[in-house]
Amino acid sequence: MNIANKITILRILLIPFFISFILYSKWEMALFVFVIASISDGIDGYIARATKQRTELGKILDPIADKILILSAFICLSVAKDLSPAVKPPPYVPIVIISRDAIIVLGVLIIYFIKGHLETKPTLVSKITTFSQMVTVVSILARLAISPLLWNITVLLTVYSGLDYVIKGTRILNEK
Predict the structure, then answer these.
(1) What is the mean pLDDT of residues 36-56?
(2) Structural domains of the chain sorted by starting position, each given as residue range(s) with its CATH number in brackets
(3) What is the Cα–Cα distance from 121 to 126, expressed in whole angstroms?
(4) 167 half-sphere exposure, CB direction, 13 A CA radius
């Protein structure tokens, strides 16, 4: 197993600690762990590309790690009891993010079963969306007043990214 995959696995292992810190209102610790996990996302990708060590395992684990981290963050933050209503994301935020990811996973499965294979590559829009989601979580954990603006921008980017994937998936299905 290469170093990039080990970093991705470390990110996955940080998630239960992150969730626990939110549930116990340890905001500074949750912020610290989330920032470390977010930075590790960029580091593992950079290492895999720079050392030409991209693996099939990494292609699967990296997006799973991102999804689990981001989904758990938005779900936990939207139900956190001790989070100020001024920065607490409303239920529609995790609903939109979960819905987009569920549609993408469903689309991937449909394409795989119909076409027999699928070459996955994140789009620029999806990378921007993931970055926006991470920045939004950081702003909420830091209890910044700009959080409501950021989560609404994130929701719009998430919807746009989801539509982009649906259009790309439809094109793939319509190819002969």
Answers:
(1) 90
(2) 3-174 (1.20.120.1760)
(3) 10
(4) 8
Cα 95 from Cα 101, distance rounded (Å): 10
Q: Which two tokens stand for residue 58?
A: 């990494």
Return all residues near 113 (Cβ < 8 A) that are at least 6 apart.
none
Full DSSP string of 61-126: HHHHHHHHHHHHHHHHHHH-SSS-TTTPPPTHHHHHHHHHHHHHHHHHHHHHHHHS-------HHH
Instruction: For residue 11, give every residue at least 6 positions away whose Cβ sits within 8 Å of its Cβ, in sequence order, or none.
Output: 37, 40, 41, 44, 65, 69
> 59-69 pLDDT, tens per residue?
889 999 999 99
Q: What are the pLDDT digits (tens) for 115-126?
A: 888 887 889 999
Find tokens 């989904």 and name the residue: 71
Residue carrying the six token digits 């949750």: 30
Tokens of 78: 């939207």
116: left (phi over 0), alpha (psi -120 to 50) or beta: left
pTM: 0.93
Element (H, E) at 143: none
